[in-house]
Every structure is written in C-alpha cells, then in structure tokens.
Amino acid sequence: MFKKQFIMLCTASEAERNSCFVLQRSVFTLGTLPEGWNGISDEVFLSIPVCIGEKGITHLVSQKLSESELAKVQQSAKTLRAIMDDIEL
C-alpha cells in the first residue's frame, strides 16, 4: 500500500536533501499523498507544496485556489485514480 510520505531523494535538489537532514523547515513541491488537501480524498500522489522538517514532511501547505483551479486539481486527482484503477495499481 502507499506510504503517507514520499520523497524521491535521487531527484531532489540539494536544498531539498539538506532540509531533510538539518533542523530546519522548508517548503518544496514534492510528490505526496494529499489526503484531505483541498478536498481530495482519492489515494493518489500529487506534486504539491509541503513543509519538510528533520523527520520528513511535517504538513501540506494550504493554498488559496479559485473555484476553477480547485475543480481542476480535484479532477486531476480523480483522473489519476481512474487510470491507476484501469491498470490495477
């Protein structure tokens, strides 16, 4: 099953790698499972802004989106979930 936190260090920038190993909190756009973020309930990974601390992702960053943007993000999550279901992931 999916893990709640997902960081690909092999493709992360130096700043992203460093933020994982020092006592700081930084905001980066990373692939993560956005449970409840902007009304998304589908089990999909999306690249969204997250705060990273020494223990990994500390929280998802809230963004003010227009109704149109929110609808598009939610539809993207549903589309990804449908594709994953079709190929049985």
Summarize the model shown.
The protein is α+β, with helices and mostly antiparallel strands and 89 residues long. 31% of the residues lie in helices and 22% in strands. Residues 1-11 have low confidence and may be disordered.
Description of the molecule:
31% of the residues lie in helices and 22% in strands. The protein has a 3-stranded antiparallel β-sheet. The chain is an alpha+beta fold and 89 residues long. The longest helix is centred in the last third of the chain and has 20 residues, at 67-86. The chain contains 2 helices and 3 strands. It has one domain: Lactate dehydrogenase/glycoside hydrolase, family 4, C-terminal (L-2-Hydroxyisocaproate Dehydrogenase, Chain A, domain 2, Alpha-Beta Complex), CATH 3.90.110.10.
Characteristics:
alpha+beta; 89 residues; 3 strands; 31% helix; three-stranded antiparallel β-sheet; L-2-Hydroxyisocaproate Dehydrogenase, Chain A, domain 2; single chain
CATH class: Alpha Beta
Q: What's the order of the H and E elements?
A: HEEEH
Largest sheet strand order = 1-2-3
Query: In one word, what is the shape?
Result: globular
Detail the poorly predicted runs: 1-11
- Derived structural class: alpha+beta
- CATH architecture descriptor text: Alpha-Beta Complex
- Strand count, sense and closure of the main sheet? 3 strands, antiparallel
Query: How many independent structural domains?
Result: 1
How confident overall, as mean pLDDT? 78
**Helix share, percent:** 25-40%
CATH homologous superfamily caption: Lactate dehydrogenase/glycoside hydrolase, family 4, C-terminal
Beta content: 15-25%
Q: Rounded to an integer, what's the Rg over CA atoms?
A: 14 Å
